[in-house]
Specification:
By secondary structure, the protein is α+β, with helices and mostly antiparallel strands. It has 28 helices and 18 strands. Strands 1-2-3-4-5 form a 5-stranded antiparallel sheet. A hairpin with a 5-residue loop joins strand 4 and strand 5. The longest helix has 30 residues. One of its GO terms (biological process) is DNA replication, synthesis of primer.
């Protein structure tokens, strides 16, 4: 178990804007940062990061919390996995209290953690084989040298080599304590019935580790070097609990910062395309690894930029197959350009043949929008044939139908009209036909009734619970802030926390919400130790439900406009905290009295023999309620 001291060090070092910024393109908005939600499709940014409070809030999905909770959501980490990732990122040594962990707990590490670990072991093994064995140097390293890769880029992409011995890795992994079941589930080893010792899946191949967004090894791609063997040139890891190839882009871990900084992503096909462009100094590039592009892969890019340029090597079959990728990118609201390299070149060879600045300039000058690209490709086959030209127009308009922005659709239609000499009206008619066709194939959306029912439930929250929640929110927002109130002829000095906690302790009030009770318990503990500072006390707690609540309270969905420049002035909540706290306390007290009265009335129905005693109590409470109404200026 990670010690509390280590957790405190991690939370002291971590910067939530740095962690989130590796996954979401953030832009400054006042004192905060804003970006598009990585959890929910949206066009208007509603994802907010607060550097001062070290929390994030996603208003589209309702999620929020700390850097730890963000990693748990985005990477599906457990709490300890997220802490270990942050400790590594910020150079913090992990201290563990072994005595608090039983032998059973140590042995019951979940399957995902073991899969990650075995892939780390394999990655280290493959790199060791490449650099430290004669076979690896003569075969694997020689191949990479032939491909003109330098040491820096080899290390950057963690390239390796799997030796000819059929169970070299399998044997070492078993010696380290990894059993056959795990090796089979990982896809690293195969155990045919006639070979009980197992076979390494990637033997006699150079290795390309496939990393997650955060840089964890998920699987491997491997290329065979012998030409006389009848097998696939490239071999990938099979689908596992941690590796789903449709959710991964090769090079995303090494390229994400550059993509975000450049606000532009180059999309290529193969491993070597990515690696060679990186070696040339062009780092904002990822690959779909030869598979058809998926929505999940596009969303990975969209976290960082909406701008994509697809780079092709000019293969006609591959170009036409790319039309589906273009439509998917358009459907996700991406800004797309396409570029074909000159005959005989692909991204790999072009990056090696010319210097960085020439390659960047060439891409910038030769990349065209998807309309020009599709027309150019299809017109070669269509020629002057009217039927083929009609199909060409339909194909181009079909892509425009995927564009979600209506204004952009109109601009694209005008562009096609000029390029193909077709009336805009006919193009708009065809656009509507294509939209109707798409709608017919669209999956049925879930009924909106559930949303309405949820909204009704949210608005029908009991007043007592609602006011209790407001008091908890005030403690989280203003913590140990000093406040003053008059009592008789004296001015009493206290704090927001003291006022509210004293109120809760009166009349043996029972907290209505378990989450509120949890927060109040932590506030009492932290405040007694003088450790509470406006919510910051909570961020090193392991309870992410509490962190979520803190994020909900401390990040406002809207920023107040600067009305002062128009000579219009409003009091902010912070300026009237004293009055606000006292007012809500009185209203909460009033609702609590009403609840007690209702409970007593119910008891009278159930136990009429004691009705005199109950009526006497109700009378006293009613008088107290009238007094509270007078203070609150209620008109009776």
């Amino acid at each position: 178990m990670i010690t509390k001291n280590t957790i405190d060090k991690i939370f002291s070092a971590v910067r939530v804007e740095e962690v989130v910024g590796e996954y979401v393109q953030l832009k400054r908005a006042g004192g905060n940062y804003k970006g598009l939600s990585p959890f929910h499709d949206e066009k208007t940014p509603s994802f907010v990061v607060s550097p001062s409070k070290q929390i994030w809030k996603d208003f589209s999905s309702g999620k929020g919390g700390t850097a730890v909770s963000f990693l748990m959501e985005i990477e599906n980490f457990t709490y300890p996995e997220a802490l270990r990732y942050l400790a590594k990122k910020y150079g913090i040594e992990i201290e563990e209290d072994i005595q608090q962990v039983s032998e059973t707990e140590r042995e019951s590490r979940n399957q995902r953690e073991l899969l990650y670990k075995i892939h780390e072991v394999a990655n280290h093994f493959f790199q060791e084989q490449l650099y430290q064995t004669e076979e690896g140097q003569n075969i694997g390293l020689s191949y990479f040298r032939e491909r003109r890769l330098n040491d820096e880029v080899l290390k950057k992409f963690q390239l390796g080599y799997s030796p000819e011995l059929r169970n070299a890795f399998t044997q070492i992994a078993q010696e380290k304590g990894y059993d056959r079941d795990l090796l089979e589930k990982s896809g690293l080893s195969i155990f045919p019935e006639n070979i009980p010792s197992g076979i390494d899946r990637f033997r006699e191949r150079v290795i390309f580790p496939i990393l997650s967004f955060s840089g964890r090894v998920l699987g491997f791609g491997a290329r065979i070097l012998k030409n006389n063997i009848k097998t696939a040139k490239y071999l990938n890891s099979p689908e596992t609990e941690i590796y789903h190839k449709s959710h991964v882009l090769y090079g995303i871990a090494q390229s994400k910062q550059s993509i975000s900084r450049e606000n532009h992503c180059l999309l290529v096909e193969g491993y070597m395309d990515v690696i060679s462009l990186h070696q040339s100094g062009i780092e904002n590039v990822v690959a779909s690894s030869g598979t058809a592009l998926t929505k999940e892969q596009i969303k990975l890019i969209k976290r960082l930029t909406p701008n994509v340029t697809i780079l092709f090597d000019g293969d006609a079959a591959g170009i036409k197959a790319s039309f589906r990728s273009i439509d998917l990118l358009l459907e996700e609201g991406m800004n797309i350009k396409v570029m074909l390299f000159p005959d005989g070149h692909d991204p790999d060879s072009f990056a090696k043949a010319f210097p960085k600045e020439y390659v960047k300039k060439y891409i910038a000058e030769h990349a065209v929008d998807f309309i020009h690209f599709k027309i150019e490709v299809l017109q070669k086959d269509a020629g002057e044939d009217p039927f083929k030209r009609a199909e060409l127009i339909k194909e181009v308009v079909k892509s425009i139908a995927f564009v979600p922005n209506h204004l952009q659709q109109e601009i694209f239609i005008q562009q096609v009209s000029k390029l193909l000499s077709v009336s805009e009206q006919n193009l708009f008619n065809e656009l509507q036909n294509q939209k109707n066709h798409l709608q017919q194939h669209e999956k049925t959306k879930p009924p909106q009734l559930k949303k309405i029912e949820t909204a009704q439930l949210e608005t029908s929250i009991p007043p007592l619970l609602f006011l209790e929640e407001k008091l908890v929110e005030l403690m989280l927002k203003y913590g140990d802030r000093e406040m003053f109130r008059k009592k008789e002829d004296k001015v009493i000095k206290s704090s927001v926390i003291q006022e509210i906690l004293n109120h809760f302790e009166e009349d043996s009030y029972e907290i209505q919400s378990p989450l509120h009770q949890k927060i109040i318990n932590e506030i009492q503990k932290g405040f007694a130790e003088s450790a509470f500072r406006s919510g910051q006390f909570f961020f090193s707690l392991m309870d992410e439900e509490v962190s979520q609540k803190v994020a909900d309270v401390l990040i406002e969905p809207h920023q107040v406009s600067d009305w002062n420049k128009f000579n219009i002035y409003f009091s902010t909540e912070e300026e009237v905290v004293d009055k606000l706290v006292q007012d809500i306390i009185l209203r909460h007290k009033r609702e609590y009295i009403l609840k007690i009265i209702k409970d007593l009335q119910l008891k009278i129905q159930q136990d009429p023999g004691n009705d005199v005693q109950y009526y006497a109590t109700i009378l006293k409470l009613s008088k107290l309620k009238i007094e509270l109404d007078r203070v609150l200026y209620r008109i009776l």
